[in-house]
């Protein structure tokens, strides 16, 4: 049987391990230990085998750096303010995941606030974060019109603000990828779900779609355009608006949705009405959120590398804080196109479902009527 721990052993186990503790054990100076553990420029002069001894000792002694003391000593907080429209939606979650991944690897903290498109709340939160000493800001799907007095990087802002770096998706290329795919499948009558006016991406994405459609000779019929006026972060974002589209009884063979969530909701509405995707109607989404691949059918979509965009935003703001990189106004990100089972050849004859009076959100509804 092992002996019970004595008070002395407990005291030793609970003793605070500091840089001096490690330095004393290895017969090194605290400055050498600090340089190695923080991988500072001074660490370049430390032999590799010494660095490894320091890292091994820190691990064995369960060393935990005192960030509060470090902040006081260097007069820095190593904290970034992250401002997002919502944290629970797939778009914001993936961007924030990329931000967290990069900041964690570089020993930065972050504080997140959610404004839900309330400009007054956005301003208040920004001032609160500044009062708490954040060294920079990253915003996601947030329209900002002025720069705060710290380095700021915006993911999907689309407002040109002096001093703010915008991480911008190439929406022209995205529209071309989506519309070319549908055109190559023979689709001419294409319906559209436009994004909410509150979304930072909506205006630029719709502008790009209209310009590319005109270049390709694809006519956009007003009856086949539905404006989403909801900020729901579930497939209910697209479901009621796809039903409105069906109620107009204007034949179409494909739908290009504002994002994946609205596309998945639209597929629910189409299937409820008796349409088979993609036999009767093809559906294209936007973003490539994780659930897109597991939808039934799997969703064809324009992929935004959201996590990588979060990584780039975090790297950019840290580089600006630490003076490692020059300010740039925009960083363009290229989209990819992912083909899955929700798109197929255009049917010879477009179909219009006969909607039933059922109000069940998941109920079956009606028959199929041919339209010339």
Give structural notes.
The structure is a single chain. This protein has three domains: 7-65, 434 Repressor (Amino-terminal Domain), CATH 1.10.260; 73-169 and 307-334, Response regulator (Rossmann fold); 171-304 and 337-370, Rossmann fold (3-Layer(aba) Sandwich), CATH 3.40.50. 38% of the residues lie in helices and 17% in strands. The protein has helices at 7-14, 19-26, 30-38, 48-60, 67-74, 90-105, 119-131, 171-184, 202-216, 239-247, 260-272, 306-322; strands spanning 79-84, 109-114, 136-140, 152-155, 164-169, 190-194, 225-227, 254-256, 282-287, 300-303, 330-333, 336-338, 351-354, 367-370. The protein has twelve helices and 14 strands.
Helix content: 25-40%
Helix and strand run: HHHHHEHEHEEEHEHEHEHEEHEEEE
- State the strand order across the main sheet: 2-1-3-4-5-11
The gross shape turns out to be elongated
Give Rg in angstroms.
27 Å
What CATH architecture of the largest domain do you see? 3-Layer(aba) Sandwich
Low-confidence stretches: 1-13, 356-372
Number of DSSP-assigned strands: 14
Number of domains: 3
Distance between the termini: 87 Å
CATH topology (level 3) name of the largest domain: Rossmann fold
Specify the structural class. Answer: alpha/beta
Largest sheet: 6 strands, parallel
Instruction: Supply the CATH superfamily name of the largest domain.
Output: Response regulator
Name of the CATH class of the largest domain? Alpha Beta
**Number of helical regions:** 12
The proportion of residues in beta strands is 15-25%
Mean pLDDT across residues: 87
């Amino acid at each position: 049987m092992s002996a019970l721990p004595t008070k002395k052993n407990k005291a030793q186990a609970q003793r605070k391990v500091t840089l001096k503790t490690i330095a004393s054990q290895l017969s090194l100076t605290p400055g050498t230990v600090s340089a190695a553990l923080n991988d500072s420029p001074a660490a370049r002069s430390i032999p590799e085998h010494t660095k490894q001894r320091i890292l091994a000792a820190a691990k064995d002694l369960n060393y935990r750096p005192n960030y509060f003391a470090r902040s006081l000593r260097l007069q820095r907080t190593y904290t970034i303010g992250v401002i997002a429209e919502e944290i629970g939606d797939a778009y914001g979650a993936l961007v924030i995941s990329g931000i967290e991944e990069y900041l964690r690897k570089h020993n930065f903290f972050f504080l997140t606030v959610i404004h839900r498109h309330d400009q007054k709340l956005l301003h208040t939160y920004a001032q609160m974060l500044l009062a708490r000493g954040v060294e920079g800001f990253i915003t996601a799907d947030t329209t900002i019109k002025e720069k705060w007095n710290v380095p700021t990087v915006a993911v999907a802002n689309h407002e040109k603000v002096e001093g703010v770096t915008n991480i911008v998706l190439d929406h022209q290329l995205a529209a071309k990828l989506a519309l070319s795919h549908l055109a190559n499948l023979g689709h001419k009558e294409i319906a559209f779900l436009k994004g909410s006016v509150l979304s930072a991406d909506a205006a630029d994405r719709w502008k790009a779609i209209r310009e590319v459609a005109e270049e390709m000779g694809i006519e956009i019929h007003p009856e086949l355009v539905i404006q989403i006026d909801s900020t729901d972060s579930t497939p209910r974002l697209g479901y009621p608006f796809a039903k409105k589209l069906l109620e107009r009884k204007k034949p179409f063979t494909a739908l290009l949705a504002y994002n994946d969530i609205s596309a998945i909701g639209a597929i629910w509405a189409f299937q409820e009405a008796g349409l088979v995707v993609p036999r009767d109607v093809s559906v294209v989404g936007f973003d490539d959120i994780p659930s897109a691949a597991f939808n039934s059918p799997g969703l064809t979509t324009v992929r935004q590398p959201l996590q990588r965009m979060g990584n780039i935003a975090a790297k950019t703001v840290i580089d600006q804080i630490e003076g490692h990189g020059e300010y740039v106004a925009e960083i363009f990100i290229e989209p990819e196109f992912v083909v899955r089972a929700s798109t197929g050849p255009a049917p010879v004859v477009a179909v219009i479902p006969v909607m039933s009076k059922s109000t069940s959100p998941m109920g079956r509804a009606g028959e199929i009527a041919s339209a010339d």
